Predict the structure.
Amino acid sequence: MERLTRRAFGGVLGGAALAAGRRPPNILYIMSDDHAANAISAYGSRVNRTPNIDRIARGGMRMENCFCTNSICTPSRAVILTGQYSHINGVKTLRDPLDAGRPHLGKMMQQAGYQTAIAGKWHLHCEPTGFDYWNVLTRPGGQGLYHNPVMSEMGSEKTYPGYATDIITDLSLEFLRRRDRKRPFFLMCHHKAPHRAWQPDAKHAGMYTDPIPEPLNLYDRYEHRSQAAARATLKIGDDMTETDFKQPRPPGLTGDALRKWAYQRYMQDYLRCVASVDDNVGRLLDYLDREKLSEDTMVIYTSDQGFFLGEHGYYDKRFMYEESLRMPLLIRKPGQIPAGAVNRDLVLNLDFAPTLLDFAGRKAGPGMQGRSFRAALEGRTPRDWRRSFYYRYWMHLADHGVPAHYGVRTRRYKLIYYYGQPLGTSGSLPEPRAPEWELFDLEKDPHEMRSVYGEPAYAGVVKELKAELARLQKEVGDTPWEG
Ligand code: CA
């Protein structure tokens, strides 16, 4: 019966099903930019509290193992919309535009009878398609500004006085107030925060004056790991600017002392930006409660990828290491998703579109490579759920000196291959690098401090994972680098 009902939503009977009152849930999808799970108290943060984001976790499910397939802003957003890997949807780097003519989640939710909207960060280098209402950050480069952002409302650009996180929430609330009440809504509320350069508003500027706890590997020496790890230029202190610090670099501070000081400076501003996001999540949840919409609305909180908060001495993302790879994902839908639940299945940003379409009563689009994890959300993970996944970062030595790499992560292990060759993603030809591998045993070494690649005890694991990597690469239609 369940299956019949869902099929009815998906087919020509969709309208009839809607008319009969069996309406699929509203969906409020809140996504911030570069918000690490380690800065959310529902995920056990040691550095801050996020009482409003935690409301979603309390009323729904916390996904412990949600990962992105390419840890960088524009590509992850394209993966989320298309349900396809970067090499298939064409958005491999920060600079690649999404082909707006492609089928994607917004368009398919429209076809499923939803009123669709997006407010905030789009950053796909084209005008949004598939949204009945859109108002997105534009200058500079689709990144937008924290203060007095320039936004394009359906193609008409103007400056919005105020703070971006508040404004994006105001616009989201405005859409909800004016929505077509005859249809379910699908609203994507996409924050700019807490993206670099971490500019908080005055309201939160006084927070975090006590020292913020340091991660255990803030002063990492990169022993037992790749040159890639050691040479990357995303180090707290050395690889930051006065724009990041919002003040001159203190004279005489170098090495670990600089890192210690810069960590506090960085984290204060990062967490202040997060505090504003959390307040604004609260405003949206309060609205749903007040309008008696909470029961009928699925609420999602996520971020386009993870972020280093001093682990390995880093900020930023890109690497296949855990803090960068892991996305926070909290989903609440009373009556359908158990409250206060935790799930440890391997789910991907690739799965978001198929999952939301599933709740909308629709099949995944043709060519979508992700798989709906609706069953897992309802507390019954299929036996054949994935036990491994494929990752690839393409921007060889661009911006933060992270070499291009691909790899496989299973529930216990992670194998990474830095293939060491320039891909020519930018005008300049980056230096060639010797290829190198890393293998982490996440059970014994959850902080990824020691690559065991090359250790005899792991020879069998390496062999299996290389075979799995080749299998996955073929399955998703990518090809190995042949330098
Ligand atoms: Ca991002």
